[in-house]
Amino acid sequence: MVPAPRIATPQPGDCAAEARPAAAFLERAEVRDVLAWMRLLVDPQDAAAVVRALARPPIELRQVHLARVIQLARRRKLDLVSGLTAATESPQVPPDARERIQRFVELHRSVAAGLDTLGPDVFIAGLIELLGVRGRPLLAPEDAAEQRASLERLRGLAVDFARRRPGASPRELAGHLAAVAPEARWRNRGFDRSPRAPDEPVVGARAAGEDGPPPARRENAKPADLSKATAEARIHPHEQPLPACGPAEDQLEVTLQLMREEVLESVARIAGRLGELRLDTELDVSHGVVRYLELLKLAALLQRPAGQPLTDALADVNARLLAATTPVQREIFQTSTLDEMLSTVLGGAGALDGADGEDAAEAAARYDRARALAIAPREESSLGPFLPRKGIGLALSASDIETYRSCPLRYKFARVLRIPTEQTLHQRFGIAVHQVLERFHSDGSETLAQMLDLLETGWRRGGFGDSEEELGLHAKARAALTRYHARLRGQDAEPVWFERSFAFRLGPHHLRGRVDRVDRLTVAAQDEYELIDYKTSRPKRATQLKDDVQLSLYALAAREAWQLESSRQAYYYVLDDVKVPVPRAEMETESVKDTVLAVGEGILAQEFEPTPSRAACSICDYRIVCPAAEKPARPPA
Ligand code: SF4
Q1: Closest ligand 1 atom, CA of 231?
Q2: Which CATH superfamily is domain 15-181 in?
Q3: Model confidence over 12-48: pLDDT tens digits?
Q4: What's the gap in Å between 607 CA and the centre of ligand 1?
Q5: Of 185, 281, 430, 473, which has the highest C-beta tally within 10 A?
Q6: Whole-angstrom Cα distance, residue 168 to residue 161?
């Protein structure tokens, strides 16, 4: 296959910029499925789009097999599309998964054939048909009608594009869709010179400082993601952001609707596997039956006799349903967390108001998590083997902890499924600046000329080009390093360590990382140490850093791993030449420990519910596979 260009960033004046419809339909699952295919066809290295295409109908690869396939592709240093062919020959991939992958490969081959020969409108109409997104079974009539309407609008977009751009190709249509898709609105907001922390590994990308040729420079760097979508290897409607908690009866209604959708999805999912030669078909079917029983339970609770307490009704309904189950179904039914979640709702008027100092928002979030857990499909295989285990605990870094705290689902994509992502220009820039500082100090260099020489070498090796943006970044780096050098010579503190690594245990977990610089200061005839982390992002105020974990963890690490009682911590924002000390009072050791342990517990329990926020989603590489912004088929009543 001829290497495909990345989807072009729309330029002012092009048709994409002209037409930016308020396109809510672009957020719908069936449309996003088509968009994901457009993306991966144009760019086979767009792993997030490939993951969505694999996870969604008509392929529906289970997440545990997705994780295995990604692992295989990474080991062989292949993009995901090429890695899939290798996966069909791997004994680690079971026959049913291989068949699904084979289906993807064949579909990909057949669709790709039209990429350079068909008109964009014909191409997209054919893609919709081939994916079978129109008329997926088991939809309520009104859902099916909405689905048809949204696909028709997508097709209309392509027809309109073809009319305005005679001779344009499906590749150009992909660029157009990238510009009008909802994620486009994040594109520019996402960049605030706040790339991923330099110590945070870019999944599937070259590590900082890695030898060998630089990554191939991408002309027309990929714009921000087209869309967001499925995490769990498929989209689960219960993962939609839900309305804030209301009265218990309303919550029951919402839960019933979500369960109904999950039952429909599970029927399709389980039915799709019935034809496969599998040893656990019976178990799959039992899971499906129990989902249906749970749906009955919710409906029965809503229709209980007037005045009957909900808890009494729950006991009654459970007894009746259990009487109709087989032993296997009974076991599944009884280990469901649905009752526990319901008891939160049923526990009286104040049940959702929070307890022990928990405010209403926290209580609502806790309830949403419990509900998502109760409704989540249970026949899925565990991702346990893919967790970053070390001994009985986990291997964790400050960046892992920040990622999980910002959004557990993002953590799952990045660190468990390990979906490859490409470094953005600004991430590469941040790494380049860090490397200059690291090499300058580790080489024992002294002069500004040496520092700027390191910049030029790093710039060439980093594959930076001569676009206006790259030249601008280069100028910023030169100016910032010049200021850094001047400040280095004029300060009282003595830098004593650079890039000093640490590793220590906290509970069952292994914490590891590196501190960019440690300075020694003499205060009142006493030695004190300052732990400094370089940032190439926009400076934050100390008040914005009050929940910061990274420096608190470094302080803990200095004590645990180096037996160094550090008394100060600071971020140094290199581009702005601003040092922001983070006061010790803000970083209670015990609370950092609690945070780490809570994060570890969540990961080990595979609690990966999305917590969407503007701050997290705007810089998230996994929007195409995230269900959190998926538009529900129909919003809950
Ligand atoms: S898009 Fe937002 S909610 Fe989804 S995984 Fe990324 S950060 Fe989480």
Answers
A1: 5
A2: PCRA; domain 4 (1.10.486.10)
A3: 333 333 344 446 788 888 899 999 999 999 998 899 9
A4: 14
A5: 430
A6: 8
